[in-house]
Amino acid sequence: MLSQKLHDAINAQINAELWSAYLYLSMSMDAEAKGYKGVANWFYIQFREEQDHARIFMNYLNSRDAKVELKPIEEVRSSWDSVLDMFKQTLEHEKKVTSLINNLAAIAKEDNDFASINRLVWFIDEQVEEEESAREMISALEAVECNKYGMYMLDKEMATRVYAAPSPLTTAE
Ligand code: MG
To answer: At CA 42, angle to CA 93 and CA 89, rounded to 5?
Structure first.
């Protein structure tokens, strides 16, 4: 059985993942409004991935006979000064999410809840990737700073990102 502490923390995490989805959807819409179709695509896929993260946690609570409690989703910012600014916020936000996931793992460890630790390992790996991809985009954007042609090419490259469902949602559970 899941401890009440971990149950509550995972419910809070579901809200945090949905807030992340909302944040990236807002970045996608701002990029769209500024004419960056590729950047808009990149963040729209990010929006879908965050919804997947929430879904994985919801499936997990259901599988442990623990009820999912949905809370209101806080407002998000709607405009950024530049695409670089969006990715800087993305990196800062993902660092925060990493610490939230680490906290869940610490509670599971304290509880000797090995099933939860096992589920959280996927998220721990995922956070390494999230921070890495945000850092890579920051480097790319800094490299093309003030170069309109470079930004045009980078936007084209970001348009090629495609959505792929994460493994916990593609394997039968
Ligand atoms: Mg996430």
So the answer is: 20
Within a 10 A sphere around the Cβ of 108, how many other Cβ atoms? 23
Report how far residue 23's alpha carbon sits from residue 91's, in angstroms, rounded to the nearest whole number: 12
Q: If we measure between CA atoms, which residue out of 160, 136, 153, 172 comes closest to residue 45?
A: 160
pLDDT digits (tens, 9 = 90+) for 112-169: 999 999 999 999 999 999 999 999 999 999 999 889 999 999 999 999 999 999 999 9
Cα of 49 from ligand 1 centre, angstroms:
7
The protein residues having their C-beta less than 5 angstroms from ligand 1 (an ion) are 17, 50, 53
Q: Are 58 and 25 in contact (CB under 8 A)?
A: no
DSSP conformation class of 75 = P
Q: How far is the CA of 42 from the centre of ligand 1 (A)?
A: 15
